[in-house]
Design a protein that fits this description.
This protein is mostly helical and 188 residues long. It has one domain (3-187). The chain is 72% helix and 2% strand. It is built from seven helices and two strands; from the N terminus they run αααβααβαα. A two-stranded antiparallel ribbon has the order 1-2. Helix 1 runs antiparallel to helix 4, helix 2 runs parallel beside helix 4 and helix 3 (47-70) packs across helix 4 (88-98). It is globular, with a radius of gyration of 16 Å.
Length: 188
């Protein structure tokens, strides 16, 4: 899959999730994420392995965002199953994000320090962007941003490691095809 298409599709899914929730249609984001995931899974060589990564990201996202909600640092305008749990659209967003791990973000594999730094800064910035669009509110901005930075600094390398480990489960011939395709996309 082309890394630019992958990145663009995630951006579309991210905006659909945030703007859908902000405008009272929280189901819109998961609908778009479903389409993005369906497209993504048709283009990866081992959909079952990729699906494991997507579900791991969903679980991590559900737990992490629910902890922030339970702590009272984040509130969401719509789509919550329970007041102490993250909304379903943010879990869908985590799944959409996971579609980038083996494609547009594959360059981070094996670069834990860089994944740590990117997570520490990129995670909170994404939530700040979501807040500006009305998809999330900070009840304690300082505590929320600190928790987001620490959490994403750990989660990003963890997700990249999971992507790497799951990739090892693929047959060697498939890994060579993926590596060659990723390298040719990076040089194009």
């Amino acid at each position: 899959m082309n890394m630019f298409i992958n990145f663009a599709l995630f951006q579309v899914a991210w905006f659909a999730c945030v703007l859908g929730a902000a405008h009272g249609v929280p189901w819109l984001g998961p609908l778009v994420v479903t389409a993005v995931v369906a497209y993504h899974l048709r283009r990866v060589p081992e959909p079952r392995t990729e699906m494991m990564l997507l579900m791991l990201a969903a679980l991590i996202g559900l737990v992490f965002d629910s902890l922030l909600v339970s702590a009272g640092w984040l509130t969401y305008p719509a789509g919550q199953w329970h007041p102490l749990l993250a909304p379903y659209w943010i879990v869908a967003m985590w799944i959409g994000f996971a579609t980038t791990l083996n494609v547009s973000m594959a360059w981070l594999k094996g670069r834990s320090y860089l994944a740590f730094v990117l997570g520490a800064f990129g995670g909170p910035l994404a939530y700040l962007g979501g807040a500006k669009l009305g998809g999330v509110s900070f009840t304690d901005t300082t505590a929320a941003l600190a928790a987001l930075a620490m959490g994403w600094a750990l989660i990003m390398p963890l997700l990249m490691l999971a992507a790497q480990q799951l990739e090892k489960r693929r047959p060697a011939a498939e890994r060579r095809v993926l590596t060659t395709a990723a390298e040719s996309q990076g040089h194009a």
